[in-house]
TrEMBL record:
<dbReference type="InterPro" id="IPR014349">
    <property type="entry name" value="Rieske_Fe-S_prot"/>
</dbReference>
<keyword id="KW-0408">Iron</keyword>
<keyword id="KW-1003">Cell membrane</keyword>
<dbReference type="Pfam" id="PF19297">
    <property type="entry name" value="QcrA_N"/>
</dbReference>
<dbReference type="GO" id="GO:0051537">
    <property type="term" value="F:2 iron, 2 sulfur cluster binding"/>
</dbReference>
<keyword id="KW-0679">Respiratory chain</keyword>
<feature type="transmembrane region" description="Helical">
    <location>
        <begin position="168"/>
        <end position="187"/>
    </location>
</feature>
<feature type="domain" description="Rieske">
    <location>
        <begin position="247"/>
        <end position="338"/>
    </location>
</feature>
<feature type="region of interest" description="Disordered">
    <location>
        <begin position="1"/>
        <end position="54"/>
    </location>
</feature>
<protein>
    <recommendedName>
        <fullName>Cytochrome bc1 complex Rieske iron-sulfur subunit</fullName>
    </recommendedName>
</protein>
<keyword id="KW-0813">Transport</keyword>
<feature type="transmembrane region" description="Helical">
    <location>
        <begin position="98"/>
        <end position="118"/>
    </location>
</feature>
<comment type="similarity">
    <text>Belongs to the Rieske iron-sulfur protein family.</text>
</comment>
<dbReference type="GO" id="GO:0046872">
    <property type="term" value="F:metal ion binding"/>
</dbReference>
<keyword id="KW-1015">Disulfide bond</keyword>
<keyword id="KW-0472">Membrane</keyword>
<keyword id="KW-0812">Transmembrane</keyword>
Length: 355
């Protein structure tokens, strides 16, 4: 009987313990079977930088070095852009991409690692609760906002850690410079871009050649529904091959002659259903290279502008503002496709035409 009493006491103690551990639904008074004990916060462990002033100084120097390396990476990217100009030689193109990429990588990576290390090793390390409440523009709210900024400044050490603060500011100041240098290089320095893009290597009698082999194309090679990526046959004789190619690249397609809806003044710009249009999108200059032979649509993969080849490459969708320029073509005595002239309008983005 005594044993039964002890069992009853143990059961009561267990039930009491379960009520202490499991939350009770205040509406029904029923203990949820899935409820678990609130584990609370683990015991706070101080970092080595909190306990050892030497380690704190070492961490501060590490963050400074990382921010300094970020600034060096940004400046190196600008220097590499100038040291390895893109002038048509593939070796210089590779070096340009490699060293600018390394500089930009160092700038980004060092800045990110430095910021993370600063937060983990030096900023205030304690738990806090941010109680949500309706946002009001009262004096108390404004005063508390100022206090929060002051607390953040104190906890981060931004105001008193001048070495880190100044190195971060320096890294952020030089960080945009590579982008400025690279984008500035996209525009000509001393020439009118409209004039530059109004003239390409195409001229009367220039043969159309395959890109990149340079093999001339006969009209008989272009089958119905096919598309050829085309360059001028004498492209490699140009002084600045890459820039000239960027302006002169063409997409060549063959449709059924009855599917072409040609303007009277352009009737002789095609040859037996073969048409040639600039491959440079009139939106921002991406290569228009996706051809759908059933619909006769050209798609620019950058921003999804679509052009109707059967109707003078007019814009049927997307942000492009004007049709693709058409290259007038014919055949020579040997049956090779040749240009009748240059484009009759500037190639590339429409904004180049604005003065």
């Amino acid at each position: 009987m005594a044993q039964d009493d002890n069992s009853g006491k143990d059961l009561a103690a267990a039930n009491s313990s379960s009520h202490d551990l499991l939350p009770v639904d205040t509406g029904t008074g029923v203990v949820s079977p899935d409820a678990v004990e609130n584990p609370g916060h683990p015991e706070h462990r101080q970092r080595v930088t909190d306990l050892n002033p030497k380690k704190e100084k070492q961490a501060e120097r590490t963050v400074f070095i990382l921010f300094f390396l970020s600034a060096v990476g940004s400046l190196w990217a600008v220097a590499a852009y100038m040291m390895f100009p893109i002038d048509g030689q593939m070796e210089l193109v590779r070096s340009n991409n490699l060293f600018i990429g390394l500089g930009a990588t160092l700038a980004l990576m060092a800045l990110g690692i430095g910021a993370v290390h600063w937060g983990k090793a030096l900023m205030a390390d304690h738990e806090s609760v941010d109680h949500r409440h309706p946002v009001r523009g009262t004096d108390e709210t404004r005063a508390r906002a100022i206090e929060i900024f002051e607390e953040a400044n104190e906890e981060s050490g931004f105001g008193r850690r001048s070495l880190i603060r100044n190195s971060l500011i320096g890294a952020l100041v030089v960080f945009p410079l590579p982008a400025v240098a690279l984008f500035r290089g996209l525009a000509p320095y001393d020439e009118d871009p409209v004039e530059l893009l109004h003239h390409t290597m195409w001229k009367k009698g220039t043969r159309l050649a395959r890109d990149p082999s340079g093999a001339p194309i006969k009209a008989s090679d272009v089958t119905l529904g096919s598309a050829f990526h085309v360059i001028p046959e004498d492209l490699n004789d140009a002084k600045d091959v890459l820039n000239e190619k960027a302006k002169a690249i063409v997409l060549l397609m063959r449709l059924k002659p009855e599917d072409l809806n040609e303007l009277p003044e352009r009737k002789n710009w095609s040859y037996n259903g073969i048409v040639a249009y600039s491959k440079v999108c009139t939106h921002v200059g991406c290569p228009v290279a996706l051809y759908e032979q059933q619909t006769h649509h050209l798609l620019c993969p950058c921003h999804q502008s679509q052009f109707d080849v059967a109707n003078h490459a007019t814009v049927i969708f997307g942000p492009a503002a004007r049709p693709l320029p058409q290259l007038p073509i014919t055949v020579d005595d040997e049956g090779y496709l040749v240009a009748q002239s240059d484009f009759h309008e500037p190639v590339g983005p429409s904004f180049w035409e604005r003065h």
